[in-house]
UniProtKB/TrEMBL annotation:
UniProt entry tagged with the keyword Lipid biosynthesis: no
GO molecular function (one): sequence-specific DNA binding
Pfam families, per the entry: HTH_18
Statement: the UniProt record of this protein carries the keyword Transcription: yes
Species per Swiss-Prot/TrEMBL record: Paenibacillus faecis
Name used for this protein in its record: Helix-turn-helix transcriptional regulator
Amino acid sequence: MALNMAGLGPVVLFSSIHHRTFRGPDHGRDMTIPAYLLCMVKEGKGWIALGDVSEKAEAVGPGDCFVLTPGTALQFMLESGALECFLLLFRPLAVQRRRGNWQAGPLHPGGGGWPGFAGGLKPVKAPELLQDAAALFADTRLPGADKGRLQLRCQSLLCIVLDQLKERASTAKPSGLELSIGYMHRHFRSKIQLETLAEIAGLTPSSYSRRFKREKGTTPVEYLSRLRLHHAKKLLSRPDITVKEAAAESGFGNEFYFSRVFKREVGMAPTAYIKQNRLQSLAGGPSEIG
């Protein structure tokens, strides 16, 4: 039976730390998270979503940190040519004193303590952790590394990130811009007017476009197009769908316009993408971090 936290609170056991680089311009990719994971973005920009792409995605860039839980289905789209990250895998435990003895048990997602253990994709900015992550990564490669020291450094990194998550969870409210992005993710299959997005954000269309570009590094039209293309790629991986159907279900409507945009952004026609994807599918399934 899992133990409720009391006294010492959450304790983490360090498992491993990895340095990964995900490549491909505007590359749609799926993966499954195998363990509790702290992701720290070192270089690159993109958008990451949990589960279906119709759920709201979060923009990520250098210095962003977030916690993911086992079994999470993750999708990401790259804005830059590559996304370089440190991935810290750990096991959270709940510790309490019972009848004079300290006991530890698994800390389940959402079971209490820091809200970060519930996972999620609301990154916190903590660029100062990148140097510590790089040092931890280097130390794990040394022969005879002090395991106790590694555990303490892992706990320190997580404390900083999860305390920030807890503080923000008590005060954060979605901005008008974030609400408009959520609208895009729910309605990208339909025609979306810039005026509608601006109204949701409480801004004029021109002010909305300027703020979107400033905060997200792209325009609303480009963001929506990338979102639709990402969904189209997933559809084109299915053996039972045509290019025309993928265009319609992704919000492009016109098959010929969709093909032009797809080739311009992806670098190949939808039909060529289908063939390439099927060849890759024969070689292996969805990616996993580990």
